[in-house]
Structure to design on (93 residues):
């Protein structure tokens, strides 16, 4: 998916969360971080940046990539259909 820039900010593409899953949104890139909310079934998310963290197994494989979907909100990429086993957004930080 292409990246569009407006006023110096990247506009994130939206990706679907695996059907049938309510995914925990955490305060950081790992299962040791607190849960800040839970995504609804059928949610889609914008990925602003990605980083490495805890390994997680999900419907799209096992990965240590975590997606930043909002300020202070991360979900495991194992639950997001990005069409790639690697990074699809800039690295966080």
């Amino acid at each position: 998916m292409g990246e569009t820039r407006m006023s110096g900010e990247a506009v994130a593409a939206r990706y679907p969360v695996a059907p049938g899953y309510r995914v925990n949104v955490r305060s950081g890139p790992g299962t040791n971080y607190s849960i800040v909310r839970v995504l609804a079934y059928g949610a889609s998310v914008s990925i602003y940046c990605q980083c490495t963290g805890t390994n997680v197994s999900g419907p799209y494989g096992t990965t240590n990539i975590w997606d930043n979907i909002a300020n202070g909100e991360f979900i495991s990429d194992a639950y997001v259909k990005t069409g790639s086993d690697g990074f699809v957004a800039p690295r966080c930080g």
About this structure: The beta strands are 4-6, 9-11, 14-16, 24-26, 35-38, 44-46, 49-58, 61-70, 73-76. The mean pLDDT is 90.
